[in-house]
């Protein structure tokens, strides 16, 4: 078969200016302007990788399985319900107070794809911070897992902007009986809705999702991801030098979806058909060991404390965890002894560094070619690794002077890139909430 | 070590409009606007992957080796020479008539990074087409390999816009003695130039590189790649589901740099530190077999005819080619017998489909998880594979109706994506050379 380009369309995106080049007679690119949108990841994943699966642990019997094709259809249904039944319009915020599970993945795609903003709530935060955050973001809807109603119900009287609560999964609903917000069942809301949605062509720089940092100093601070930043970050996660997974892999996503978008894994996996294994609320060492043995993930992403607990569990009660060869650890440094112990189990732990403000992939410690197979390899794996092409960095001293990359100098690390935040959302949503740029992106070490 | 974002800069790119969201009180993303530029790939590759290498075959003795750090310094020198000595400004076109080698890689990065447009000339085209193309693109400078002077010299009197010819590598210069264009030696031009260049922050949609299709019907047609399209394409090539190489790999780039940017490999490899092995003019089966045995590449990219010749060579005179486990084949379908023969040598051939208008990565035939290890796997590998997330496609019938993806329907394939062309450059460079979009991107099968 031969191919021939006959003709073509240029989808002029709204952010393309009238003149995008300096000279009158400048050479124009002939490339299409296709905005990088989360809806494109959804549409691709549910069509091309329709048989890939999200498996959610249920704690009893068979885990729950849902294909990417089904997720795509249900994300469309959720978007219809949010728009047509609950009246969500424009870029209103829809919050989630949920564990890692298939419904949370549906929310991840439906909400930004329709133009609204996904706001993941960190269920580990103190009640007063959660109240502050929901009011600050002006969330209009909260999707909540039934098992988390005991956490949400006492907060509801203080959540001024929340009009709708949508409950998904098992859990006693009675605490919501007197809520002033309208309460809906997730499955009832989706039932009968169309399984396709005409996703809008958005500005790729528009807000797609937001997380608040925990606010160890002062009020929590909002980081707002764009469609563009999430799309580019997903591509980076899928690059061979980063996590480098394919549709032959299954990733055990232990890192919570309310924590920096589960390190970008739900978006990245949907982009390439990597299967997801979701622990829901079963984050204790015993069920984690069980799900690894039973579902045979090839990759996992977690913080070191979770892995420390898993090691104790596997020592006390050995399981077949041989499928799991690659573990991405972030959040804090992995103790060398833990790394060695997992090496012996055949699980290769790889450090990654990032933060809410870096989407989070800042660095990853895949040993460079020169170190592989040498004594230097293990020492390298204990570092935080190297920056990918999308993240630029420099080290500056107290007077703003540039310091050398010599492995010894200590200073402020300044980072820059298309998935790095330039400011916090510290006031109520207004177009001017971000102060004009005055200095470089800085990260203090 | 802990990190803390202190403050941050928003590099407002020139294409960002005053209001990038629909509503007055819309939520803004807090992500940095960092344009996707080829200079970023260059800066990253030469710093983070400074020890990776371009190895160029010389036909005698040791091949020539140059590190990515050296390439970075020399690309800066070339940009200084082009701007300060030859007067290249704005988006003027700088052409190359060169084989695959380290100097051609330097041109690949220096020319677009400084804001000019790299125009690769296909040395297989008939003389009259080359003349037409150079005049159409209004090339101001031509970089030429010494061995290709016999091809260039007779054309020069017809090249109206060419003011400078820069010669690199071995070859008799005497045919250029009477040229009206000024003739320079590449190495003399670079000598003494600064090894750093303050690369401009360009619009990521600006023209970066151009290729002309061979013009089987009518005049040749120009496809103009943008910085954005090349950057995104490079990320895709590096994704595990595509070529998925890392800095432990060496790619034998047989596909010419004058043919669709060598399938994007020079940009993609620099992004992640993959080493390049460049055959220069030694494209015959015997030297290719020699360089595989001697330099031990792990990956190669070529059209089937080259691989057919290599198989005959290896059958006649066996070599150790065991390093080479992954071969990307495109341009035309690989005969099943050839694929089987290479399977037996341990070289796994993978089809990729693309064209000048698709940058070229359109599809790649890595078998889906369900087919791996089954009888269906080989049959799948004979297809052209699946689309990545960045390429959307649909099949339409003669009346414009959408046809099903059933493996049987035949129609026009319409493709869309950020690295897919929307039109050809068919007239002399003017801002209006691309007609307004009227229909979808179509590729006829």
Automatic annotation (TrEMBL), chains A, B:
Entry superkingdom: Bacteria
Domain AMP-dependent synthetase/ligase residues, every copy: 61-421
Single annotated GO MF: ligase activity
Keywords, ordered alphabetically: Ligase
SUPFAM superfamilies in alphabetical order: Acetyl-CoA synthetase-like (SSF56801)
InterPro entries (alphabetical): AMP-binding_CS (IPR020845), AMP-dep_synth/lig_dom (IPR000873), ANL_N_sf (IPR042099), ATP-dep_AMP-bd_enzyme (IPR050237)
UniProt protein name: Medium-chain-fatty-acid-CoA ligase
Taxonomic source organism: Streptomyces griseoflavus Tu4000
Lineage of the organism: Bacteria, Bacillati, Actinomycetota, Actinomycetes, Kitasatosporales
